[in-house]
Design goal:
Order of helices and strands: HEEEHHHEH
Number of strands: 4
Strand content: 15-25%
Radius of gyration: 22 Å
Distance between the termini: 66 Å
Structural class: alpha+beta
Amino acid sequence: MKMYKKIMLIILILILILSSLIISGCSSSANGLQDGYYTAEDKNGSHGWYEFVTIYVNDGKIVSVEYNAKNSSGYIKSWDMDYMRLMDSVDGTYPNEYTRTYANQFLKEQSANDIDAISGATHSYDTFLVLAEAVLEKAKAGDATVALVDVQHAQ
């Protein structure tokens, strides 16, 4: 009878170990992100620019981040050299600099929690944080539709 109890205990332990391995293997990652491309965009825009964040998740990890703004014709804000020169002379930064910095921090941290604001780009920083959270929610849900976010009311 003792031997039967030991065998049953060993079988029970093996079942628990195997079920925990199966469950952990089925989840996409510790942070719950589903593989794919996800985008969140400011639905109202500011001064004709609509900021957006796009991420690509592979094996449950963010592997690329694009942060920028586009106008109604699709022109990308960081390509505008006249705007860059003007903003840099006034604020000490410009879209091609702060968008890459925020995106790189997001990629490194895998979250929007520990991203540092850049002086001269604090409005975009606030918008970025809202969009980053929205895109993470899309990635957790595995929902590849674009999240149109009312950024002004979310801040």
